[in-house]
Amino acid sequence: MKPSTATLVLACLIVVLAVFAVLFSTRGPAVLAQDGPADQFSALRALQHVKAIAREPHPIGSPENARVRRYLVGEIEALGLRPEIQTTTTVRQARGRWPTAARVTNVMARLKGREQGLAVLLVSHYDCGRSSFGAADDGAAVAALLETLRMLKAGGPLRNDVIFLFTDGEEVGLLGAHAFVEQHPWADEVGVVLNFEARGTGGPVLMFETSPGNGRLIREFRRAVAHPVASSYGYEVYKRMPNDTDFTIFRRRGLPGLNFAFIHGGTAYHTAQDSLERLDLRSLQHHGECALGLARRFGEADPDSEWTSGDAVYFNLLGSLFLSYPGALVLPLAVLLLLGTIGLLILGFRRRRLTAGGLLLGVVVNLLGALVLGILLLFASRLAFAQGYNFVLRNGWTSNSLHLLGLALVAIGLTVAVYRLIATKLSADNLVGGALPLWLILTVAVSLTAPGGSYLFALPLLLSLAAAFLWYGDRPSETVPVALFVLLAVAAGVATLLWAPTLAVIGVALGAPAALLIGVFVFLLLAGLLAPQLALMSPRHRGWVLPVVAVALGVVLMVTVRLASDYDAANRRTNSLLYALDAEAGEAFWWSLDRAPDAWTAQFLGQTPEWGTTPAFLGFSAPALKNPAPVAALGRAEVELLEEEAGPDARILHLRIDWPFEAHRARVFLSSPGEIRKVLIDGRPIELTAAGDAEAEDARPDFLYNALPPEGIRLEVEVVGDGPLEVEAVGQRYALPELADFSYEPRPAHMMSRSGMIMDSTFVRSVTTLVAGAAGEVHQRSTPGRRTAGSPRTR
Ligand SMILES: [Zn+2]
Questions:
Q1: Percent of the residues in the chain that have a pLDDT greater than 70, as a whole number
Q2: How far does the centroid of ligand 1 lie from the alpha carbon of residue 139, in Å?
């Protein structure tokens, strides 16, 4: 084959494969029609449930949350099943976090199996964020599970029981799932868990988390699902992130399982744009395919079988072509690659294709080129996009894909340019020779520390080594032997198929840092491992056409995407505001976490607000914009000492705390001159040792209570000695206050509240001191100051 023909074929192959790899990796399966086969999942049939669920925001404790719950119960009853309702107070204490309590209500349904054995558990959460409509997170999953339940019921009993768990309070600390495993008897009967989530509004459903020893689970996943999308590198990355879903609760309990989510369109996550209009029906279809396929598969599995085995390495090569191999092969493969690399370098020197100086220069060029290109792209992107960068990356498939494509083109153009500059001084032989040790080091390091990610390095290295053995062999220069051409093409193809979708997903998942990785790996692949291919593709007489065109096209793409991306009613800009009233100090402030006031927040903050640090009673201390606000007549927390039991050296105080305004959640701090030995919330203990965040000097027992019941919180506090108990109570309502002498405009349509549970809220702090022997009184007045527990007073 003539080099020019090889050039053309190779170039076309790589481009076509890259485009297909990214396209397949970023689209879910096609939506099955409403009248499609009855035994297959149809997103259009499940859509009615999303429509019913996502009418209004329905965070835990809200009337809309109760409405969604009634809908779930009604749908389960309509199938002729008896819903199981679990209403309880639960307290969860994650490491380094506040103890978080809530009154949660979980809804469950159970399909009896033909045999007695462990059950398959399918989980999604029906609560959502404060301002989100919860269409994607997690309405799509709830809808997919309701439709799966209907289809399984229609299909007759499976071998094993299948339990459907719709949790409450996921968004405020996984509280529904926690209550289930802690208090519900069905939790002991679960054999395997499937959890369904969303962190955006579209894209394919990624199986992003498994449990330790996942080999068997991965095999079943591949067989049960028509479009399996998962990668063990993604799992390795996720494991190292602080993110949690309900699945965390089950994994910590040692249950095997799989966790699913779609992540495209992340700008809408936990905001008012997580709405029905934005939901990608392909994602709903994909959720359903996974839920139904796996429920059937695990539902028919041998109930006595062992679910955990060795870990697997797994990934999609192209579209639904899903490959896996045992993790036990990772280290032997790394050893093989070590020996292969040494052998190849020896061959290179023997054949005089490598020189010591050339090889060293090859290493340096690869290393420096990759780092410089990565850092350059990162800074250039940051500079060009500033605050809008994550917006471009995460605001839907088109802008994300075109931007990343632009970035990749610039990286490719610059890499080829570097290659052109050095090609006369440094041969492709020495370049690939210099890249191999670097890839080997990466392979060994990743194989040892994160074996699930090793395939990204080991497989391209393996194929490039094979190609390089032929490349270093004797060959006439005017032709490319067919065997060499095939190996070069396969090596380039596999590297492209593995890396193009990986970098694309990193762009969606991590945002800005993707630019760094695109720079580093485009260079290490193209100028390093694929240097022989580049040598064929970029003959010297072609000059600068390829790099210049690639860079220009990339810049044009990125600039176009940036110009086309603007905030409007469909793509809203977030801002933040809250109202904090300290009833003890008799003062109130507006607070904002934005960098500067905008047209809407300026009516609260003024044009030039000062910076301050948010008060500890809000639950977080951060620099923020502040401006004095009118004091609202909201009243303070009512703290009632119901009963006082005297012991030999301590008293047990029974309290009830309630708020005169409709508070949705509350934070409570307790202090006393004597030791506080025990605190029970609605009868459930909190751990006192790890209370609050570790950095606070203030180590008072404290907790956060979500979804306050109408009758208030019941506390039992054991205090040593007969000193007073000081109760600092902060009530939060998910709305800005109505103020007598202060009116304000509603937020314009192109803006929305920032995500999270604290913004657009009213906070009221008050302190109540309970002295010994005052049972039966309602204490609404307080002592002056905050830390005056040492000076008991008489009423
Ligand atoms: Zn969620």
A1: 91
A2: 9
